[in-house]
Design goal:
The strands form four sheets. Strands 4-13-12-11-8-5-7-6 form an eight-stranded mixed β-sheet, with helices on both faces. The chain folds into two domains: 4-69 and 322-426, Aspartate Aminotransferase, domain 1; 71-320, Type I PLP-dependent aspartate aminotransferase-like (Major domain) (Aspartate Aminotransferase, domain 2). The protein has 427 residues and is of the alpha/beta class. The protein has helices at 4-16, 71-82, 92-104, 117-132, 172-175, 186-195, 219-232, 251-256, 282-285, 304-320, 323-343, 369-372, 377-389, 410-426; strands spanning 38-42, 45-48, 53-56, 110-114, 136-140, 161-162, 178-181, 200-205, 208-209, 215-216, 235-239, 262-265, 276-280, 349-353, 356-360, 392-393, 402-403. It is built from 14 helices and 17 strands. It binds pyridoxal-5'-phosphate. Pyridoxal-5'-phosphate (PLP) is lined by residues 116-118, 121, 144-146, 206, 210-211, 239, 241-242, 266, 276.
Length: 427
């Protein structure tokens, strides 16, 4: 496959932009080689600057659940564009998107729109602290919540270690307000709440984790979180930026019937434009300025283009309910990939929830960071490269989920399985 133009553009990018990318996940650091520079997306396909076509299972890392350039989203954007792109005033479209989110996500009574998932999480943490008057927050190893200082902390191996920063620039003071626990470990949660002397402001969790690969939170774990936080007046935050409109219309909380106090959203709700949101119980949300005293603002928040794409995407999802079909197709893909690997005697585990899935190169089931981090990442790299050479674009890390869109047909899924079989048998 010819990647001449890609290579030329990426070489230049490296002189202009750190690492040549505006977000590190895009670099092929984990799998080696240079990333492919894309020019265009249509339906389930991406086209690179050399004219190669790929079946896209990254989908902009989650948002493009309707596929690229979906006609309803494009039409909504064209219409919004003609009316001007930003006013810095209230608009009716903001109400519409807020209404759709409140109708869909069971625990959300009021919502604030922001520009990214990171911003949503950062604001929700501040709100939880402002609301409770407490400092400490709890997160789980292997969960990613955007590049918020207080959440960019490494997983300690012992339960409830006060952690150290894992990015230079995050101060010890900030990191020491964050407690790390292992994911899916109910006992560790109970123990912490029993013995922690300082009251905890918030527990934040990905109810279906997507950032150590796809790992589903168990019912026992999520129920324990709900019970323990409720007892102590701690705000439970579900970070549904990724799983929000991926595991069901209305998110993991809808699928599992477990309700948090606050929810953060992003990715799908912007339909490919920059949108984030945080929402929850009105009693808490009313603490945000100007109704309350917790400061949070944004020049472009609720931007007309972004809200138009979000509304069109959510309305299409609500009207068509593609989730059961998508889930079935994803299951077929997972089964096919496992069979292909097993034929070549490669040990793999499939982990799926809704339209999120990861193929782990591992002998043991993956239920948290401890097990995820033991995967055969060298094997994953070969697999990634092998599929890329066969025009299949998977996420370039073992620790990312892959996604489906409504544009991925059964035939395309079979084509991808055949590509995987071809790779494993020639390997
Ligand atoms: C992607 C993601 C974020 C960060 O969102 P950005 O829009 O990239 O800032 C936060 N939390 C989760 C669970 C995510 O998957």
């Amino acid at each position: 496959m010819n990647h001449q133009n890609s290579q030329k553009i990426f070489s230049k990018a490296k002189t202009l932009i750190p690492g040549g990318v505006n977000s590190p996940a895009r670099a092929f650091g984990a799998v080696g080689g240079d990333p492919v520079v894309m020019a265009r997306g249509e339906g389930a396909f991406l086209y690179d600057v050399d004219g190669n076509r790929y079946t896209d299972y990254v989908l902009s890392w989650g948002p493009m659940i309707l596929g690229h350039s979906h006609p309803r989203v494009v039409a909504a954007l064209e219409k919004a564009l003609k009316d001007g792109t930003s006013f810095g005033t209230p608009t009716a479209a903001e109400n519409r998107l807020a209404e759709l989110l409140i109708e869909a996500v069971p625990s959300v009574e009021m919502v604030r729109l922001v520009n990214s998932g990171t911003e949503a999480v950062m604001s929700a943490i501040r709100l939880a602290r402002g609301f409770t008057g407490r400092d400490l927050i709890v997160k789980f190893s292997g969960n990613y919540h955007g590049h918020v200082d207080s959440l960019l902390v490494a997983a300690g191996s012992a339960a409830a270690t006060f952690s150290v920063p894992n990015s230079p620039g995050v101060t010890h003071g900030t990191a020491s307000d964050t407690i790390i626990l292992p994911y899916n470990d109910s006992e560790a949660v109970r123990e912490l709440f029993d013995r922690c002397k300082n009251p905890i402001a918030a527990v934040i969790v990905e109810p279906v984790a997507g950032n150590m690969g796809c790992v589903t939170g168990t019912e026992d774990f999520l129920t324990t979180l709900r019970m323990e936080t409720e007892k102590q007046g701690t705000v439970l935050i579900f970070d549904e930026v990724m799983c929000g409109f991926r595991v069901d219309y209305g998110g993991a909380q809808k699928r599992f019937g477990i309700l948090p106090d606050l929810t953060t959203l992003g990715k799908v709700i912007g339909g490919g434009l920059p949108v984030g949101a945080y929402g929850g119980r009105a009693e808490i949300m009313r603490h945000i300025l100007p109704e309350g005293k917790v400061f949070q603002a944004g020049t472009l928040s609720g931007n007309p283009l972004a809200t138009a794409a979000g509304i069109a995407t959510l309305e299409e999802l609500r009207d068509t309910n593609p989730y059961p079909t998508l889930e079935q197709r994803m299951k077929r893909l997972g089964d096919g990939l496992v069979q292909a690997a097993e034929k070549a005697e490669v040990s793999v585990q499939i982990s799926q929830c809704g339209t999120m899935m990861t193929l782990f190169f591992s002998r043991q089931p993956v239920c948290g960071w401890d097990t995820a981090s033991q995967c055969d990442t060298a094997m994953f790299s070969r697999y990634f490269r092998g599929l890329l050479d066969r025009n299949v674009y998977m996420p370039c890390s073992q620790f990312e989920a892959f996604f489906l869109s409504t544009a991925h047909t059964d035939a395309l899924i079979e084509e991808t399985i055949a590509a995987a079989e071809d790779f494993f048998c020639k390997m």
